[in-house]
Amino acid sequence: MFAAIFISNFSLQAVLRHEPDLRKRAVALVDPALPKPVIIQLTSAARSYSVCEGLTASQAMARCAELLIKTRSLAEEESATEVLLQTAYAFSPNIESTAPGVCTLELKGLPFQSNSDAAEQWAGKILEVLAQFYIEAKIGFAATPELALLAARAASSILVLQSENPDSDSHVARVESFPVLSLEPTPEIREILRRWGIRTVGEFLALGKDAAAERLGPAVVELFNRISPDSPRPLKLVAPPDEFAEQIDFEHEIETTEPLLFVIRRFVEQLSRRLELIYLVVAEFHLRLGLSSGEKHERLFKIPSPTGNVDILFRMLQTHLETVRTDSPITSLRLAAKSAKPEAQQFGIFESTLRDPNQFAETLARLTALVGSENIGAPELVASHKPDSFRMAVPEFGSQTKRDIYTALTRAVQRAQSESTGLQLRRFRPALASHIEFRDNAPSLLRSPVFIGPIVKTRGPFFSSGNWWDAARWAREEWDVETSDGSLFRIFRSSDGCFVEGVYD
Fold first, then answer.
1. Residues 221 and 142 in one domain
2. Residue 334 belongs to a domain with what CATH number?
3. Which of 77, 61, 55, 59 is nearest to 9 (CA)?
4. Last residue of a domain, which of 361, 389, 418?
5. Which of 25, 335, 429, 459 is least buried, going by the fewest C-beta atoms within 10 A?
């Protein structure tokens, strides 16, 4: 047994999925890729105004002044297809991407193959999930994939095809009662059948396969095979994409944050629901903004503690976008999510850790927006001999657990304490400006805030320099000295003068 999920007006639904309020209004879709852009799909409200396929936009608006014209978007159709396949895969592992807006499922191994009531309940759950993503679909059940698709197209919501006479249930029918046009014959065959008075599939079957092929040619054989329950074809099984993404091409350029945040909020809700369907949460977000100048603004957001909470995820994106300045308006948006399993970890009773890593990351982002990225973070040494040379590094929330980080830091401190030998230098921050007298290029007298008097012993000088190739070059001459009162100091001379750097304990 097979089931087919059919999304009518797929291209139009893909465009209106992010504007669900327009589904009840008069909306028509045009394809700009056609040589003559005409209406290809429209809502029922637009059809009530005598608007139909094949009209140009101006002709359609002459019939309905309130008609909204939308442009077909392949990017949004791609996202809708991902939603369809991922939803179907959550209910059956054997799925086929049959056509745009059509997904066929093989029900092999499922317990309700011979129970139409159970099949309808199962199909109802699929429709409920798709409705959460603003997709209206229909589902048909039959013995072959082709018959299942015919049932889905003819269904009001759910339809089961049976070879025997159906009972009184309105959800059960026979293929003989379908109109012959549902088989999608060629225009030539359609016109001949109309002249012969053939209106239903049952009347078409009464012609006989061999007799019809003799009169109408080999093309009619395919129509008979399509409705034959004895010739099922194997499905071309596919796996849904691992990436979860939502994207949109804006009809009008966006220059302010408010409309952009409105769309992003809806994207976050959609992605969170899609991951929740397969019991996963968001670990990373990849944001890409397309600009009218042709440039792109891209940013990767790593979620410190993977979550499916919409408010937390949206605030992280909002904080960043409030500081973004682009040189041209925004024309497209793409938001992709990387999935992860929810974290479940119990910490020790005396272990200190962040209560809410996501809130901590949000606070860092807001501080970064206020003072700049170069002025916030954790100090990190750089590969340089220049004293106090460091940079501010933003905390990284990797796959390593907090328990592992705590253990690694504790061991590093213990190792440093066990390996430290000799005197300890207690540095003055900043270094103390001093006056030093030299005799034979060696310091002999020190006048500083911590000591005034002669120097009795010296060790040095020790030279260090760097950045000789630019204006930020530096050079230092250092000495370790002993004063007349027995104190040990580190002193140095540079282009800025003489200083006492610290005292040895």
1. yes
2. 3.30.1490.100
3. 77
4. 418
5. 429
Angstrom distance (rounded) from CA 244 to CA 164? 43
DSSP string, 41-61: EE-HHHHTTT--TT--HHHHH
pTM, whole model, 2 decimals?
0.68
In Å, how far are 95, 337, 373 from 394, measured between CA atoms?
44, 22, 8
Cα distance between residue 126 and residue 435, in whole Å: 83
Domain that holds residue 498: 425-504
CATH number at residue 189: 3.30.70.270
pLDDT digits (tens, 9 = 90+) for 110-150: 766 566 778 888 899 999 999 999 999 999 998 888 888 88
461 cis-preceded (ω within 30 degrees of 0): yes
Band of the pLDDT at 9, cuts 50, 70, 90?
A: very high
Phi, psi angle pair for 187, to nearest 5°: -55, -35
Nearest to 317 by CA among 388, 241, 257, 389: 257
CA distance 10 to 41: 9
On whether residue 232 sits in a domain, the answer given is no
Shared-domain flag, residues 404 and 437: no
Q: How far is CA 64 from CA 45, 69, 284, in A?
A: 10, 11, 45
> Tens digits of per-residue pLDDT, 341-373?
876 555 555 555 555 666 777 777 777 777 776
Q: Report the C-alpha gap between 227 and 225 in whole angstroms.
A: 5
Are β-strands 442-447 and 378-381 bridged in parallel, bridged antiparallel, or unpaired?
unpaired
Element (H, E) at 118: helix 116-132
331 and 462, same structural domain? no
Comparing C-alpha atoms, which of 434, 431, 440 is closest to residue 483? 434
Do residues 182 and 302 both lie within one domain? Answer: no
Q: What is the DSSP string of 269-311?
A: HHHHHHHHHTT-EEEEEEEEEEETTS-EEEEEEEEEEEE--HH
Q: In this structure, is residue 231 part of a structural domain?
A: no
* DSSP letter (8 states) at residue 343: P
Asked whether residue 74 falls in the same domain as residue 115, the answer is yes
Domain count across the chain: 4
* 279 and 196 both lie in a single domain: no
